[in-house]
Amino acid sequence: MEVMTENSTLYSAVTMNLESTHSQVVPITLFVALLCVCLVIGHLLEEYPWLNESITAILIGFVVGTIILCTSKWKSSRLLRFSEELFFIYLLPPIIFNAGFQVKKKQFFHNFFPIMLFGVTGVLISTSIVAAGCWWLFPKLGFNGLTISEYLSIGTIFSSTDTVCTLQVLSQDETPLLYSLVFGEGVVNDATSVVLFNAVQKINADTLNSHTALRIFLDFLYLFTTSTLLGVSAGLVTAYILRGLYVGRHSSVREIALMVLVAYLSYMLAELFELSGILTVFFAGVLMSHYSWHNVTESSRITTRYAFATLSFIAETFIFLYVGMDALDYEKWKMSMLSIWTKMGIYSTVMMLILVGRVAFVFPLSIISNYLHRSGGDSSKISRKHQMVIWWAGLMRGAVSIALAFKQFTHSGVTLDPTNATMITTTIVIVLFSTIVFGFLTKPLVDHLLPSASNSNTTGGDPGSPKEDMTLPLLSVEESASENLSRAKDNLSMLMDRPVYTIHSYWRRFDTAYMRPIFGGPCSDENQSSC
């Protein structure tokens, strides 16, 4: 009898497990079908630049969510329940890795300083303004219950940008500097926001003082530095293996698999050691594109470009489709027990702070960048119209903001606290409003500000930059001390007069002389000007 009872219990457990699995298969199947619908509709609407894939996915999710909400008698509008682990473990890595892998390295490294100014310093300024503004204004609107740590988290959540809409209407050939800055700031901004978010999570303070601010800043520097070094190490190790073993002579599949697995391994190691996986996998992508990509076969080069972009596209579409559905989650809206006018005040306040936060750093930091490029010619300076486009491009919020909000204010996508529910709905409203409204207006704005971009100087070069000999050493043991001293004085003079260009020049010389012979690249075997 006991054996029969145990067998019956085992059979029941297996049956329940199969039923549970089947119940998950149905919504996943429907969700995949919706992704296909987004792909087809996005293709049909491709001739309308103002209607990008993000807006299309949100609108389709909104329509499907409405249908599900009506058929479920106002109980739920979603096919799947969002999990922050799903986002950070499966969806975010391919998005960030592809951003690093697809970055135009020559423009990225040439404009590295202004990109880091906007992407790192800008996030710190924006986070401070949004957090301080919410801390001061929310209680005046009758919204209380948030801690100092949560206010700082809100600052990082709403400092993460989504520049896809602007990039789709910019031409990389016509405005290379502007495209590089918008793209570079977008990816560095996302990584920095997550690093700062993780640093804020480590504090537990009721008041914000100089000691707490210093702790946050030091934690941020530690996470940023160690995560970057881990990503760079992963990229260099991959390049060295591919160059030394020449894996492609046996199988192109192994080359691609090695790049994917090492990138994902670096992300998981960063998360294991409580670092920033986003920053790690981004720089792993940059280094793999800079070195590893040139060490693989031609077929692998073509495959990696499209395969990584495809995975990133599917992940982003998945997120925006879910956001469209979740916007109609009736339970979340009902749980937030604030009046409609209070909610509107909160939404307006956050949107205003986002606008002010962008103004506070885009224009001042552009002045600093132009000063450092003062001898580089007009093509290396950020014009006033370009500054306006950069400011506008950073007003839209997207996938990272949603993920950070769910990580901070929910548990596996569920929240039972009215304050947390309010912040989730606020994030959804801001993402929807900024993506749809600002996304629709991006094309007309760019056309108005840059009507004759194609008639301007579009070489992407730096006319004020002298030609340099990439084989010329910084210092040489084969030359006399007086010649080395004279060269050092010239280098120091150029550094003071043209700091950004000089640092970039030093890096190119070092990369050509020491890095590429070991790790590979287009100039490994012969000196090409395209490096």
Automatic annotation (TrEMBL):
It is a multi-pass membrane protein. It comes from the Eukaryota. GO terms for cellular component: plasma membrane. The keyword Cell division does not apply. Residues 33-446 form the Cation/H+ exchanger transmembrane domain. It is found in: Membrane. GO terms for molecular function: potassium:proton antiporter activity; sodium:proton antiporter activity. The chain crosses the membrane at residues 25-45, 57-74, 86-103, 115-138, 220-241, 276-294, 306-325, 345-368, 389-409, 421-441. Keywords: Antiport, Ion transport, Membrane, Potassium, Potassium transport, Sodium, Sodium transport, Transmembrane, Transmembrane helix, Transport. The keyword Transmembrane applies. GO terms for biological process: regulation of intracellular pH; sodium ion import across plasma membrane. Its main location: membrane. It catalyses: Na(+)(in) + H(+)(out) = Na(+)(out) + H(+)(in); K(+)(in) + H(+)(out) = K(+)(out) + H(+)(in). Belongs to the monovalent cation:proton antiporter 1 (CPA1) transporter (TC 2.A.36) family. This is Sodium/hydrogen exchanger.
